[in-house]
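S.,

As promised, the adenosine-5'-triphosphate run. Input:
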Amino acid sequence: MQDNRAHQNILFVINPIAGDIDKEELEEEIIAVCEEHQINHIFYKTTGDEDVEVIKSLIKENKPDLVFAVGGDGTVSQVGALLIGTKTPLGIIPLGSGNGLSKDLNIPQDTEEALQLIHRHVIRNIDTLDINGHPSIHLADLGFNALVVKRFSDGETRGPGAYAWIAMQEFLSYEPKFYTIDTDNERFEGEAFMVTIANANAFGSNANINPTGILNDGRFEICLIERFPKTAALGILYKLYTDSIDDSVYTRKLSCRSAVIHNTEHEVMHIDGEPVELGNEVRITIKPKSLKVVLPVPEAE
Ligand SMILES: Nc1ncnc2c1ncn2[C@@H]1O[C@H](COP(=O)(O)OP(=O)(O)OP(=O)(O)O)[C@@H](O)[C@H]1O
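Predicted complex:
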């Protein structure tokens, strides 16, 4: 149901550099919407340094009814992780270079439309994952894509062009690695080019690794791209960008509630876009409906 009255106090966490978009005017627009609807607003602009600690204490001190992340997937994950298991919903104004979770949640990508969520929305619960004690809301990877994410985050250059350039360079020499994966109902043993732990569907780049994933079904998917001839790469890319990767003969999917990935070749890994080092045993469990999110009011309502 639409729920305007209950949310009178909102914390906006704004990443000023996300998506290389100037957000001065946006702040004015947020203030205007809040004033029109008699909503108290608190702003925090991230600095890239100890933001999590500051946001945590702002939530503790101000007890906001909602927290909006204004930025890209990195900002959304930082804020969302703090709200898992709490009564406080996560709102998103998508303004990053990658806005994967907001797209999976059908949040408007148009800023003017997204701003209307401040006063008109529904609240729904979605699942999250626990990966060796780290929260994951969106997608985590081992293998090729994780290596590209790591090199991208170690580098100076931002934006999709830099990401694509690194991916091309790495692709030429990357060799699939051997994994053993035990889920609550099956075992996989074999080589994989990449292993994606998917609570959601598509990366910020729009590459859809898990087209049939549902964010609140109490399950997650381990999506494998197995060894493939280099000549098949374009076909795989095409399927990733046309929501048809499940049709590829080089993919396989394990749907489960818990899993252990034995990462014996020490492949690098990322969780929701942040590189992490988790050791050789990666344990994943689903936390059903553990995060409240702010969504557009369905048309029928
Ligand atoms: N003021 C700041 N200066 C520099 N970096 C910042 C600042 N605030 C946040 N960050 C960094 O921005 C990153 C998150 O950016 P986010 O994903 O929201 O936007 P993005 O444009 O999609 O980013 P990216 O291009 O890195 O994916 C985090 O690594 C965070 O530490």
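The two ends are 8 Å apart (CA to CA). Residues 160-173 form the longest helix (14 residues).

- D.
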